[in-house]
Amino acid sequence: MKMNKKKREYLLIIFSFFIGCIVGMLFLQTRKEDNQELKKIIQNAQDAEVTIESYNGTVREGTGSGFIYKVKNNKAYVLTNEHVLSEKVMVINQDGKECEGTILGKDKSMDTAVVEINKNCAKKTVKLGDSEKVEVGDNIFTITSPIGKEYQGTITKGIVSGVNRTVSISSEEEQEWIMNAIQFDAMINPGSSGGALLNEKGQVIGICSLKLIKEEIEGMSFAIPINGVKKNLEALEKGNDIKYPELGIAMVNTNNTEALQEYNISLTTDIAGVVIIDIKKDSSAEKRLQKGDIIVGIEDSVIKDTDQVKYALTNYKVGETVNIKVIRNSKEKTIKVVLKEAS
Predict the structure, then answer these.
(1) Active-site residue, selected from the candidate residues 54, 65, 107, 111
(2) Per-residue pLDDT tens for 266-290?
(3) Which of 54, 83, 107, 192 is catalytic?
(4) Active-site residue 192, yes or no?
(5) How does 45-81 read in b/e, with b if 16+ C-beta sit within 10 Å?
(6) How far apart are CA 279 and CA 301, in angstroms?
(7) At 129, phi and psi to the nearest 5?
(8) Number of continuous H segments (helices) and E segments (strands) in the chain
(9) What whole-number distance in Å separates Cα of residue 274 and Cα of residue 276?
(10) pLDDT tens per residue, range 111-153
(11) Is position 111 annotated as part of the catalytic site?
């Protein structure tokens, strides 16, 4: 029996409807499973988050955030910002349990520190990821304690807004620099400093730092990439404060014509770089570099401004020899310099 055209069209509509229902149900089921998996990831990361209260004697000076990344023997290890710490540290886990923390090592230039606590205060640990794989548009979330323990475990979500951001920060003691920061749009607040920035797998890709936020700016949050932290993690755990080398020079950018005139330096090139205007006695640069040299490279790093010089040096240790590329008398030269500790 032949089926007429209208019946065929009717059956096709019914068939398409049922196929659409099946596909829709599978899609919803997949989304539900993905959502449940994400909830598990967030719950684990939330259990690893801690609130940090800093005291000077009996006076509480401030609060911050941190996260437990390792448990070994009877100890657990917390990563946080250096600037949130004071003389005495109390660590509060997600159950509200308080335990005294011991500050092990600090890295002021990277604004990071490791705090040791008893493993009984550690509910969970969170894995450290790979910040080199972070790309603009990646989904991220933060888990921090904004304002303090009352809002402990606060979760915000967003996307990566930028990578390799050069951000200058300052402290009361000196000017410090963090480069290649991760920019994201998830909201963080006072007390969020030291908290974890995580990818969709629940791996820490950065440490949130409120020091990088200006009061007049909204929606621009920054984190210290975790890869830069990991390279010094073992030393921090051993109780070593991280010391970085310096060249021992005063310098200005080549486009700072006012400063160059003040120091009677006349450039014969318009190349972007950093001009040496003075050299400290007994420094790395003494007898190797000269006033008026234009630094254009440190090893494989291209140098175009003073921030880049300071950041490039954080990749090396005291005592290492590095190649400094300079323009001197209109000619490029490569000069070997043995790095000394910053004083």
Answers:
(1) 111
(2) 887 788 899 999 999 999 999 999 9
(3) 83
(4) no
(5) bbbbbbbbbbeeeeeeebbbbbbbbbeeeeebbbbbb
(6) 22
(7) -95, -155
(8) 5, 20
(9) 7
(10) 899 999 999 999 999 999 999 999 999 999 999 999 888 889 8
(11) yes
CA-closest candidate to residue 211, choices 202, 219, 222, 220: 222
Q: Which of 189, 230, 190, 185 is nearest to 206 (CA)?
A: 230
State how far the Cα of 277 lies from the Cα of 274, in Å rounded to an integer.
9
Say which of 192, 193, 221, 283 is annotated catalytic. Answer: 193
Specify the pairing of strand 139-144 against strand 301-302: unpaired
pLDDT band at 173 (very low <50, low <70, confident <90, very high): very low
Asked if the model's pLDDT at residue 156 lies above 70, the reply is: yes
Report the half-sphere exposure of 93 (CA within 13 A, side-chain side).
22
DSSP 15: H
Please enumerate in sequence order all residues whose Cβ is within 8 A of that of 322, keeping only pairs 6 or more positions apart, or say none: 298, 299, 316, 336, 337, 339
In the block, tokens 């009677």 appear at 264
342: DSSP letter: -
pTM (predicted TM-score): 0.77
Position 306 scores a pLDDT of: 86
Element (H, E) at 144: strand 139-144
pLDDT, position 180:
76
The percent of residues in the chain predicted with pLDDT above 90, rounded, is: 53
